[in-house]
Amino acid sequence: MEATSYGIVELTFSASEDIAVIFYGPFDEISELVFNCDNLGGVQYPIAECTGAPSPSENFTLHIEGNYYVVLVTNHAPTSQTFTVTMVDGAAAIDCSNVPNPECWPDVGTHQIKKNGILKTSPLTLFLNDTLELISNGDYLLPGNTIPQPDGDGVYSAQHMWLLYTYDPMVYDPDSDPAFVEILSPSDYYMDINNDTSDVVENYGCGNTVWYVPVVGDDGIGGNGNVDNGINDNGNLDWDKNGDDCFEIGKGIQVTYHCMLNTEEIKMVQPSIYFSEGYLHTESQEELLLNFYDLSGKILQSTFCHEGTTSIPLNLYDGCYLVQILSKTSGEVIGSKNLVVIN
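The structure assignment produced for this chain is given below.
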């Protein structure tokens, strides 16, 4: 619902049986509304008005103070029915004709993240020669106003793509986000290896953290391999080539590229080990055996940690301990670490 002028408005929602109505907002732009669809009802985009009383008619007095609102009408009965909206009174002016065609609203879908072939979650760290795979589950919806890749419509070819950011997206439109870097891949699948072959390492260096962001947009590669003046595309890539805000970006996947280390200086990337709120947190390339010693050299506890990121309860009193770190596979000592425990 668009507010074309601000002020008080009185509305009546009517149906044959029970309905419930919620207003969210306000939003400055429709694109802001779409981007924050998962955050409706929170502090930044609160419920402006709502009702839950069992009734086929709901009356509202709403103080309009922004450009756009989301109006959610639930079929509480439940039964097949229609509802009407009547503006009873008020100085504000509202307009629902500017709501985009529902066929145009895309959905970026869900994705899998794999590190060395094993399912992971964001955030994650890539060590030397670790492989990253980003995989769409294929449950996305492309913009309905352009024909999907590879056929296209001669100009645009709707497609799933991957974007690269230096930080988690802060605004809906990548062009308006200072963290946006580039379009990486017009495909459902993206793979990278943390070594010299990685474009991310080559262009942005190791030791950096990036965000991979999926998007469904209207201008993919088409059916001619993105050749200039191709048969089904315009030789370009864009998430919103026709400028109608008909695209959707997903949640960023945070990946840190650990700097490559000289194998003559160190056999492996030292595991990350720290203690917090009663738990020992580790991150390692392999399964570990940890031996805990007190300051007199007495062994107090041993524990196994899986490859990747783990959190395990630690039954130690407050104090300083020495942790001996061994490879569970080879039994070789990798290193040691002083650990301070404060419960």
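Interim note for the steering committee: The chain has two helices and 23 strands. Confidence is low (pLDDT under 50) at residues 261-269.
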